[in-house]
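User: Some background: our group keeps a shared notebook of sequences we're curious about, and every so often someone picks one and asks for a predicted structure to add to the entry. Today it's my turn. The entry only has the sequence so far, pasted here. Could you supply the structure so I can complete it?
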Amino acid sequence: MKHLTLLAAAGLTIVALAGCTDADASSMSSASPTAAAEPTTDSEYTIPDVTGECVDGMATIVDDSSNVTIDGDCENVVVEASNSIVTVTGAVVNLSFDSSITLVNVSTVDNVAFVEGANGNKVATSSAPVITDSGEGNIVAAD
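Assistant: Of course. Here's the predicted structure to add to the notebook entry:
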């Protein structure tokens, strides 16, 4: 019985000390609060403007986080860039995505394909293309 009482007392002492240690640690971490982040209006980051090129009827967009423009018609456009805005001023026959979170503005497009893993993309067009979508959360809608 004496061993049981000593064991119980030792256990309570450890629990009490652990509680004190946690309380002291949390009070120390909250003793010096940090200021909330203020939004800045004069950020130095700008989205780079990139000119896309259609060579022999093919353009591949690889510039992440960019504003890409392809002037004129381009038979095949492959978008591999993520977090970008792509504008095609002419007509496209085949538009395919191997990217995520990219917006493509195109006047007319015949076929749009999203491969597996191409998620959260949007095509803004006035045409009604044939759509193959193996990704998730992709949208083709009127601009």
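Suggested note for the entry: Helices lie at 2-30. Residues 1-18, 20-36 have pLDDT under 50 and may be disordered.
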